[in-house]
Write a structure and sequence with these properties.
Elements: H1 2-40, E1 45-46, E2 56-61, H2 71-83, E3 89-93, H3 95-104, H4 108-114, E4 123-128, E5 131-134, E6 148-158, E7 167-176, H5 179-195, H6 197-204, E8 207-208, E9 219-220, H7 222-241, E10 245-246, E11 252-254, H8 255-261, H9 263-266, E12 275-276, E13 282-285, H10 290-298, E14 309-318, E15 334-344, H11 349-366, E16 372-378, H12 390-406, E17 411-415, E18 424-430, E19 436-445, H13 447-451, E20 456-457, E21 463-464, E22 467-472, H14 477-488, E23 501-505, H15 511-523, E24 528-530, H16 537-546, E25 551-555, H17 557-562, E26 564-569, E27 573-579, H18 580-592
Parallel strand pairs: 10-14, 16-17, 23-24, 23-25
Antiparallel strand pairs: 1-2, 2-7, 3-4, 4-5, 6-7, 8-9, 11-13, 12-13, 14-15, 15-22, 16-18, 18-19, 19-22, 20-21, 25-26, 26-27
Helix pairs in contact: 1-2, 3-4, 6-14
């Protein structure tokens, strides 16, 4: 196994090096885009153009409104810039020189960005051809190294993400080392567009977002609510088997609670404004469940014999995400976490961590999300954003790293990604299109028990400090659902499918027989329907396929006479005939075993 671990580490380093190279290409392509836009529209005002996981973007302020029809013209000019093989030349300016330059060429957004650079820090520029940009780099040596690119889409983006600021036009694009990689990515990108959870969610009636209710607030429609309920039932059964106790907490809490926990000062910018009940009481929409669960633990006296105490809640929390960052179900303002907090002794920590990891892995395997790695998110030793005793941090980080290693999970240590109160294991999952998503998390926390002076009575009859574990295998129902919709392309497995079986009589002569089967399925607990329309059987099948009904029972005269049904599975076609009892038994097995 040691050789395999070295191979994993080697691959991880190579992947990072490749991503660094790709990031340079994409960052350089953003500059090529800005060069081309300024050649066509010299009056354009520029803001920023960073690389992204998908490619790059650049933000412009321009009276001309970009449309996709402009892409051909812009790309043609970009190709000229690439063909000119301009060098990317680094230079530095004093703060006064930089401001004078941007005042002279009338670039107000760039001028304001200079003030973001701390005093004493170098103010750096990169120039390619006639285009000089405030930039920290890095870049490829020449524009000729940008060999394969494509402009993708347009979006509106408020300057600095603040809706009180001017709205800019954002052009998104992507770039790769060669045309083959670009072609492969564009093919996957087209498939991703077909799987977009916002598109499928609308078509299948799974969820909606109403501007009347508010941005980033998900309304679960009946079919989507069925999927969510099944996911919750799966998790609830696991929690009960593993000794968790369900709790419920309110949607708001006193501002003093979150000040004491540290969530208010640390995450103040991503929280909603406080609610003042009167001059003495001030409340906050709940940003986290953990301070509430801490108060439940603190409400009773605990002996070491009772530990671990495992408190679980499907709790809704609220985050004020900027409107430009909202994205369907995957980036929202109201989210329900499958949250739990465990209070245990120091001796119990490793065993409890292992069990929470095992639960997270079982959740991923059950849903076919088998391509994952773990990010061990650690403290940045140079940052002051973390709270608590250094020795506790070291112990917590060592424990998480050891568990990941001992359980032979592909993992890497990433400094700077820990929560302010403790390190964590973040589960990074690849979907069927190879896209990375951060889903479940397990966090080890010595600090909040200290902040709230939590205690239990040990075997020596003296008070001791418990250790706290935070864990959420799904992360949030909203984000997890959005990812599942895209992973399955809306074709949920039988146990999750909103409509599990639809009965399709071929003619009206089989309607009574169809009703009899419908009643049997309902009695057996299946989500079922019957199509009694006057359409021909081909049209009924197409309708069921479009609705992504998992299983179709087709009944004609032959099936009526033999008391059987002909089975058809969505996307897989005809599956042959069975008697109704045989078919029901088979469906029950698929559901109980959660077969994908």
């Amino acid at each position: 196994m040691e050789g395999a671990k070295h191979e994993i580490n080697r691959k991880s380093i190579e992947e990072r090096q490749q991503m660094d190279e790709l990031s340079r290409i994409r960052h350089s392509c953003a500059h090529v885009l800005a060069t081309a836009v300024l050649r066509i529209w010299p009056e354009a005002k520029l803001d920023i153009g960073p690389p992204t996981d998908e490619g790059f973007y650049y933000d412009f302020d321009l009276e001309h409104r970009f449309t996709p029809d402009d892409f051909e013209k812009i790309e043609a000019e970009m190709k000229k810039v690439v063909k000119e093989n301009q060098t990317f030349d680094y230079s530095e300016k004093s703060r006064e020189e930089a401001k004078e330059y941007y005042q002279t060429i009338n670039q107000p957004f760039k001028l304001e960005r200079i003030d973001d650079i701390p005093e004493g820090e170098q103010i750096t520029f990169y120039q390619n051809g006639e285009f000089l940009d405030l930039c920290a780099g890095p870049h490829v040596p020449r524009t000729g190294n940008v060999k394969a690119f494509k402009l993708l889409r347009l979006a509106a983006a408020y300057y600095r993400g603040n809706e009180n600021n001017p709205q800019l036009q954002r052009i998104y694009g992507t770039a790769f080392k060669n045309k083959t990689q670009l072609s492969d990515w564009l093919e996957k990108h087209e498939e991703a567009k077909k799987r977009d959870h916002r598109k499928i969610g609308r078509e299948q009636g799974l969820f909606t977002i109403s501007p009347t209710v508010g941005q980033g607030l998900i309304l679960w429609m009946p079919k989507g609510a069925i999927v969510r309920t099944e996911l919750q039932n799966f998790m609830q059964s696991e929690l009960l088997q593993r000794g968790y106790n369900p709790v419920f907490t309110p949607h708001i809490g006193s501002i003093d609670l979150y000040k004491k926990s540290g969530h208010f000062p640390y995450y103040k910018d991503s929280q909603y404004p406080t609610i003042k009940a009167d001059e003495h009481e001030e409340y906050l929409l709940k940003p986290m469940n953990c301070p509430h669960h801490i108060q439940i633990f603190a409400a009773e006296r605990h002996s070491y014999r009772e530990l671990p105490v495992r408190l679980a809640e499907f709790g809704t929390v609220y985050r004020y995400e900027q409107s430009g960052e909202l994205s369907g179900m995957t980036r929202v303002r109201g989210l329900t976490q499958d949250d739990a907090h465990l209070f245990c002794t120091q001796e119990q920590v490793e065993c409890e961590i292992r069990d929470t990891v095992d639960l997270t892995l079982k959740t991923l395997r059950t849903l076919g999300l088998n391509n994952y790695r773990v990010q061990v998110s650690l403290r940045d030793p140079d940052s002051d954003k973390y709270t608590g005793d250094l020795s506790n941090w070291n112990a917590a980080e060592e424990t998480l790293s050891r568990v990941a290693k001992d359980m032979e999970i592909i993992h890497e240590n990433v400094p700077g990604e820990a929560a302010f109160y403790g390190p964590k294991l973040d589960f990074m999952v690849k979907d069927c299109l190879g896209r990375d998503w951060q889903l479940g998390t397990v966090q080890l926390d010595y600090n909040l028990p200290e902040r709230f002076d939590l205690q239990y009575i040990g075997s020596d009859n003296a008070p001791h400090r418990p250790v706290m574990i935070h864990r959420a295998p799904f992360g949030s129902f909203e984000r997890f659902m959005g990812i599942l919709i895209e992973h399955f392309a809306g074709n949920f497995p039988l146990w999750l499918a909103p409509e599990q079986v639809r009965i399709l009589p071929i003619t009206a002569n089989q309607n009574d027989y169809g009703h009899k089967i419908f009643d049997e399925l309902k009695a057996a607990g299946f989500r079922t329907s019957i199509d009694l329309s006057g359409e021909k059987i081909g049209a009924k099948i197409r309708s069921a396929e479009t609705a992504k009904v998992h299983t179709m029972f087709i009944v004609g005269q032959k099936e009526l006479e033999s008391e059987s049904i002909s089975i058809r599975i969505h996307g897989k076609g005809d599956q042959g005939s069975k008697t109704v009892p045989e078919a029901i038994s088979s469906l029950k097995t698929h559901i109980s075993e959660r077969i994908l």
